Amino acid sequence: MRQCRLVTLGVVLCTASSLGLAVPQLAAATPRECSYVSSTFRPTLAYGQTGPAVKQAQCLSNMWGGQPPKLPSDGVFRSVMLKKIEWIQGCHGLPQSGTIDARTWQVLYHPVPDCYDPYPT
């Protein structure tokens, strides 16, 4: 009985793996890919701000796969970026303020493997 369950589990895992279901895509950003500012420079950013730190946040947010739109790395914190940051914060259980604070920087550099919250339309 136990051997049958193990075989069944093995078949399910192999099938899911071959379909790409067992291992979610990770969205880990590497410093080389987003190098507009030092990874230790993490100022608080809000809607309307501009500069290289905003570019860094845009680049890091673009490491997320799937449904969310890719942001232009232009260094301007616009409404599209605000919406995406709020969604990322929600995926990590953070308050959805839209402000990039220390906790939000942390999740931009170390995102969850997948978010099950649908991206708002």
Question: How does this model look, in words?
Answer:
- The protein has 121 residues and is mainly α.
- It is globular and about 30 Å long.
Share of helix among residues? 25-40%
Distance between the termini: 48 Å
Rg measurement, Å: 18 Å
Overall residue-averaged pLDDT value: 79
Residues in β-strands, percent = under 5%
Q: Which spans have pLDDT < 50 for at least 5 consecutive residues?
A: 4-29
Total strand count, please? 0
Strand-pairing-aware structural class: mainly alpha
* Number of continuous helical runs: 4
Overall form: globular
Biggest sheet record = none
The ordered H/E elements are HHHH
In short:
The protein has about 120 residues and is mainly α. It has helices at about 1-20, 50-60, 80-90, 100-110.
Overview features:
121 residues; 4 helices; mainly alpha
Tell me the layout of helices and strands.
Blueprint: H1 2-18, H2 52-61, H3 79-91, H4 102-109
